[in-house]
Design a protein that fits this description.
The protein has 9 helices and 16 strands. The strands form 4 sheets. Strands 4-3-5-7-6 form a 5-stranded mixed sheet, sandwiched between helices. A 5-stranded mixed sheet has the order 12-13-14-15-16. Strands 2-1-11-10 form a 4-stranded mixed sheet, sandwiched between helices. The protein folds into 2 domains: 150 residues, Rossmann fold (3-Layer(aba) Sandwich), CATH 3.40.50.980; 150 residues, ANL, N-terminal domain (Rossmann fold). The chain is an alpha/beta fold.
Amino acid sequence: MSEIVERFERLRRDSPSRPLIHLPAAGVSLTVEDIWNASLLQRARFQALGLGEEHLVISAAGNRPAAVSLWLACRSLGIALMPVDAGTPAAEIKTLALSFGATIAILPGSTPGLEALGTATPFDSPLVAVRLADAIPAPQTYRGAAALKVTSGSTGVPKATFTREAELIADAAHVTTAMNIRPQDCQIGAIPISHAYGLGNLVMPLLLQGTPMVLREGFVPQQLHADATTYKARVFPGVPYMFAYFANNPDAIAWPRGLEALISAGAPLDPIMAKAFARTFGIKIHSFYGTSESGGISFDDSPDVDETGTVGRPLPGVTITL
């Protein structure tokens, strides 16, 4: 049985009513039990579509709760999941399907050009499951894979990492240990959870240790204070432009009390901006470096603001060889 599913089932057994996904836009919070039940429905729909072990599914579910329960549904059936950006054009979905042998794509029902991809059936509103026409399944290719993380590489030709479940779990352990992300913490979920960063820092800690998140479909600076204050968020995994907004607009909001573990990845953190941010708000932004291929690599856990810029030292459990 999948260890990810096992550990989430343990959370469900111990604390079924514990809120894990806060949705401020809808004014609701989803519990462990809610996420588990959603995954069971998704699993049943996959089975009705004839999917099982070693198939590949593309998901453009975006920052929706269904994207979280989807990992449980896929892991319970041994399906490999390829998350892509919300809003990925239908033509790009088709290219990925033909390149990698995906049989089903999970997309919003409003996706332009959806009808040209194949036959759509209801999945998890507003999402539909599209049986991709012309795609040739390649089940033997993905034996043992849990995720295919899309990475652009340098040629423009689609590439994807072959990631096993044990690697997802190990990466999450490295990240949560290095960054002190605890089960009782709440995180701000504004980065895309389809990317390796969002998967490792938000989705896996939620599924494996029950760390809640405030889930937004995108980043709106004016929402941060209310989200962090209402749900008592402590951890904010972001990217440099998010922090730069606040450094450049210090009067835009009062920094939320308690939102103190700030993590920046996805691009180099400008040390001048980081210093200005720390001077204004009294909080350091900690750089994190990783890749889709390897997961998290290094983290700056120092309390000091480094004026030259650094990505810190290797995460616990990570070895770097020159």
